[in-house]
Amino acid sequence: MEQQLTPAALTPNSNNDVVNTELDRSLSAYDYELPTELIAQNPAIPRDSSRLLVVNSRSIHHIFHDLPHLLKEGDLLVMNNTSVIPARLYGRKATGAEIEVLLLEERQYNCWLALVKPGKRFKVGSKIIFEPRGAFKQGSKGAGGDEKVNSSLSLTATVLETDPATGGRLLQFDVPGGVPLVQLLDVFGEVPLPPYITASEATDEQYQTVYAQHPGAIAAPTAGLHFTPELLEKLRDRGINQAFITLHVGVGTFRPVEVEDVTTHQMHEEWIEVPAATVEQIRATKAAGGRVIAVGTTAVRSLEGAAQSGELQPFCGKTNLFIYPGYQWRVVDGLITNFHLPRSSLLMLVSALIGRERLLNIYQEAIAARYRFYSFGDAMLILP
């Protein structure tokens, strides 16, 4: 019989004093100006040499490799072990017009929901022809673990229907030999970097966490990019434990909020798994007086999404949980996170933890100190 967290173990923590004011519900209240040169184009090398702004009763500047000395023995880090797939494909219509496709999620076998650009005139029945962009190396394996196939193969897709929730298209792929499309993505696709990264020299490996295991994300859980195998070992040596969830980062994470009253924003669903082993680790951590520190907003959404019944339970399915100021926290005590875009749902989530006004003041402090922002940028450690 699986052990579950009891309601007592999920007593609302000290972060629940962040109230929702009328201003907190206004999209324009989450705006700030960022100098373009502070948008990181490349990751820090080594990964844990990035800067770390520690937020507790005050803000203190550190380097990420200081993390083992900033946490306590018995704390639990919860990390997202999703892996980014080569989800961006380039093709053409029969007329020769160029098409860009960003895969979002597989709905049925080789039938994917995707964003298509340009998409307004891309109607049901339209076909896309894809050409290989890379070549398989002899004896190497595809994303699904099977031998990679001949790079001279062609790939086509047909638009089945439109998706009002995302503005995307449902594409049925005609895959040579009927193999899963994911096995061909190394040939036909590329790892999609965010649009604000325009001059990067990063490798695909640098846009994956060192603990990535389960392919399915179209963007990296970027708070985890700062960890190295050596840093993870140092954390374990100091009695700081590690647990994992899986959230395949999709359009729900990065789609902008477009309504002025943020309480009416509808998050797109994303697939998550919170295994029983992680629930048990959280239960043991809280029972012993330790703190649950989520690594990234995706870990937050997974844990809190799996606790919406009032207590944390093992969960495998989809969540559209939207967290903004006034949210009543059930599981998470602290957070490691990067610096997020203005007006984003991620900025609102972090505001729910420490308050919108305080967070924006911290962002101004970071800008003045020339921190690097967004996916390849520096990080914050928010402690209760």
TrEMBL record:
Q: Which cellular compartments is it found in?
A: Cytoplasm
Which InterPro entries does the record cross-reference, listed alphabetically?
QueA, QueA_dom1, QueA_dom2, QueA_sf
Supply the HAMAP family for this chain: QueA (MF_00113)
SUPFAM superfamilies noted in UniProt: QueA-like (SSF111337)
Q: Which NCBIfam families match?
A: PRK00147.1, queA
Q: Name one GO cellular component term.
A: cytoplasm
Q: Which Gene Ontology BP annotations are present? A: tRNA queuosine(34) biosynthetic process
Which domain of life, per UniProt? Bacteria
Q: Which Pfam families match?
A: Queuosine_synth
Describe the task this protein carries out: Transfers and isomerizes the ribose moiety from AdoMet to the 7-aminomethyl group of 7-deazaguanine (preQ1-tRNA) to give epoxyqueuosine (oQ-tRNA).
Q: Member of which family?
A: Belongs to the QueA family.
Alphabetized UniProt keyword annotations = Cytoplasm, Isomerase, Queuosine biosynthesis, S-adenosyl-L-methionine, Transferase
Catalytic reaction(s) noted: 7-aminomethyl-7-carbaguanosine(34) in tRNA + S-adenosyl-L-methionine = epoxyqueuosine(34) in tRNA + adenine + L-methionine + 2 H(+)
Listed under subunit, the entry gives: Monomer.
Q: What is its EC number?
A: 2.4.99.17
Pathway terms, separated by semicolons? tRNA modification; tRNA-queuosine biosynthesis
Molecular function per GO: S-adenosylmethionine:tRNA ribosyltransferase-isomerase activity
Q: What is this protein called?
A: S-adenosylmethionine:tRNA ribosyltransferase-isomerase
Principal location listed in the UniProt entry: cytoplasm
